[in-house]
């Protein structure tokens, strides 16, 4: 009979479940097959970090003839923002790109709860082409979703995005 998973424990992502970290072991303990909310939070943060630091295929390849590819994992990532300047950047485009990518590639975030807001003030120009973005969302969990608050620093010179968790 299969072991029952307590309701406050969650399963890892499919990719993590398919990965075999203990090749010599034929049976994994329960702790290796479930996540706590803290582990889930860290996993979602890691996945968002990878997502926001990947450049989508559509930046270099015209995908208009393949609409399915535009929303597939082959187009994982964000548009290229490196080379932009903070003064010329359209922050609504940045917010929209981040929001659309999260909705498309991080299904554990509840889409209706997702808010992405870029800093739009004169201090933005003093940050050496770094734009701050606040991300607020609910992450699906049992028995109830939990809140995730991040501040991402988007370096427009290098394209590097650094998400940091904010206190609640």
TrEMBL record:
User: What SUPFAM superfamilies does the annotation carry?
Assistant: gpW/gp25-like (SSF160719)
Which parts of the sequence are annotated with region: Disordered?
Answer: 1-26
Q: Which residues cross the membrane?
A: none
Top-level division of the source organism's lineage: Bacteria
Q: Where in the numbering of this chain does the IraD/Gp25-like domain appear?
A: 39-143
Biased composition, class Basic and acidic residues, residue ranges: 16-26
Report the NCBIfam families cross-referenced here.
VI_zyme (TIGR03357)
> What is this protein called in UniProt?
Type VI secretion system lysozyme-like protein
Q: Which organism is it from?
A: Candidatus Accumulibacter adjunctus
């Amino acid at each position: 009979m299969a072991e029952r998973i307590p309701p406050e424990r969650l399963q890892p992502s499919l990719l993590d479940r398919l990965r075999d970290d203990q090749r010599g072991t034929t049976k994994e303990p329960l702790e290796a097959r479930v996540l706590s909310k803290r582990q889930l939070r860290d996993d979602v943060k890691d996945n968002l970090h990878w997502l926001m630091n990947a450049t989508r295929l559509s930046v270099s390849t015209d995908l208009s003839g393949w609409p399915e590819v535009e929303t597939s994992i082959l187009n994982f990532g964000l548009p290229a923002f490196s080379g932009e300047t903070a003064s010329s950047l359209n922050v609504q485009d940045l917010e929209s790109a981040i929001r659309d990518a999260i909705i498309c590639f991080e299904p554990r975030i509840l889409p209706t709860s997702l808010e992405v807001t870029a800093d739009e003030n004169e201090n933005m120009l003093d940050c050496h082409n770094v734009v701050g973005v606040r991300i607020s969302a609910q992450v699906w969990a049992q028995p109830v979703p939990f809140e995730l608050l991040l501040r991402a620093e988007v370096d427009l010179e290098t394209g590097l995005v650094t998400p940091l968790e904010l206190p609640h």
